[in-house]
Amino acid sequence: QVQLVESGGGLVQAGGSLRLSCVTSGRTFRSYAMGWFPQAPGKERLFVAAMSGRGGMPYYGDSVKGRFTISRDNAKNTVYLQMNSLKPEDTAVYCCAAALGRIGVPPSGRSAYDYWGQGTQVTVSS
Question: What confidence score (pLDDT) does residue 1 get?
Answer without folding.
Answer: 85
